[in-house]
# Entry
Amino acid sequence: MGSAATEVASASLAAGTMGANLGDETFTRGVFIVALMAMSLSGAGWMISTLILTPIFKRSSHKLEKVNPALMSIIPGAALLAAFAALTFRELPKSPTHVIAVIVSAVVMSICLLLAKTLKQNWLKEWGLGFSLLIGLVAAYFAHYAGLGLPEA
# Structure
């Protein structure tokens, strides 16, 4: 299974080709089977790509490691940071609540990392993401109900 958005998109497209919609009476067993097949094919593409590309990336990472060992400790972290940044910056313009959630989450993560380093508690590095997500969600909840959410149409 891929991301929920990808699976829903695949199922919606498959159902739409059969003149049906997700979640209503037009979604029959036959439509379900076609939607399931579409989701399976979509997921299979990622699996096949992973199967083919993993050995290639492993060889290239070994070559890079020989050239500069520090580089291989930077690249995975940079890739993860880029992925989170791409997801984050797409949400920022939506409302002030989104901005508050991002800022609070970043501050909580920074505090967790600082405490982990200062107190030599490595578990805080692992749990910091969970703490920052949870506290960011709570901050967003309060910000939304304080009137900082999207204006009602």
